[in-house]
Amino acid sequence: MKNNNFKLLCLLLSAVLMSSCNALLQAAKDTQVKNTTIQKDLGNAPKRAYTLTFPDNKDRIPVGGYSPGEIMQTTVNSFGKRYKDYVFSDFGITTEVYKKNAPKWNGGTQNLVMDLVAPKNDPDKKRPCIIFMFGGGFVDKGDDCSQEIGKGMAQKGYVVALIDYRLGFPEGNLFVLCQGDFMKGFYEASLRATQDARSAIRYIKANAERLGIDPNKIFISGNSAGAITALNTVFLDDKDIPATPLKDINGSLDAMKDNIQFDSKVAGVISLAGAITDKKLLDKTNNTPICLFQGNCDRLIDINTSTAMKCDDKNATFPIIYGSQAIYDATKSKNKIKFNYVCNGGHLTVNWGLSGMIELISQFTISVLEGNPITGKTIVNPIKKECSDACN
Predict the structure, then answer these.
(1) Residue in 101, 112, 128, 271 with CA at minimum distance from that of residue 205
(2) Radius of gyration of the chain from Cα atoms?
């Protein structure tokens, strides 16, 4: 009995310490976000953080951190080929709330916004659209390539929707310390993000004529957690989700039934350093063209099959996830899939070379728009190597 009481006391103390640590990290994260905003306002953020100027909006999730780098330079050719070349010199940004009163994981609700980046003076009113989702482990909003995707693809003639999605889960702040149990909360957070992605697709379809978008030419993309969400949006259905987490997200990936008269199908998916979180999804045959980018030196999301986040001291419990190589190997015989293997590339897309990455993205999207999606595996060299591992 004494031994059991001692174990119970240890568990209680551990829970209290974990809760206190989580609270301290949340406070630190809030301070980080505030400082990032201040530094940007003072002009002290990385130069690439000033690529786009967003309209003020109280609902927009503030950026917690920007990857380093200069503003990406583009050479405009107004006589070039639309969607392939940078044919527009100017673009504008408008902000819309695409989902109202979405329930947060810890109570309350929030409005979710999308920033629409579109070419100015564009005579085309049925343009393809790329929905892009930021990364940050489902707890933060990081800007690793959102600025460049918005600018580059808009200058090529696309409308780019940079969307917010709900963040957070129990013990979510602890992953930076490799502490905590993420076997439950991490998965549910990815499901809430998937709900939001599906809502964004339906919102754009519902407002396609007003926004000058072709509802049949919507792509979904993202990096890191955003890429996981983009892949979920294409591969995941309610029937694939176990009963308990499905109940935790109110019973459906379309629980709020916003613009439910429209479906959430897309023309293609583009994953930057993403993964699939459920092995059985790899057995699915999917009619949606897939484009994957990932480095073999990615230490956060393994390119093959491994635990998420790669915590070396193993004090955190993360689920097994399946990176781009695993996805490609398992699905290439039954799906239209293109894999850009970034040789000695890490997790940060800025180190891959954003201009080159955007060119490869547009090659894929053009092939889909022309009805002949490119497939196969290509070795891509980054501008900055993060290791010297063998590439194959």
Answers:
(1) 128
(2) 21
What phi and psi, each to the nearest 5 degrees, are found at residue 246?
-65, -40
More confident residue, 289 or 319: 289
Give the Cα separation of 62 and 331 in Å (integer): 37
State the burial class of residue 374 (Cβ atoms within 10 Å of its Cβ: 0-12, 13-18, 19+).
middle
219: closest CA among 377, 52, 376, 368? 368
Please tell us whether the domain made up of 45-380 is placed in CATH 3.20.20.70: no
Domain map of the chain by residue range? 45-380
Average pLDDT, the chain: 91
Listed residue (308, 289, 272) closest to 382, CA to CA: 272
pLDDT over 50 (residue 13): no
What's the pLDDT at 75?
A: 97
For residues 88 and 141, the answer to whether their CB atoms sit within 8 Å is no
pLDDT in tens, 242-273: 999 999 999 999 999 999 999 999 999 999 99
Three-class SS state of 337: strand
Torsion angles phi and psi, residue 262, rounded to 5: -110, 150
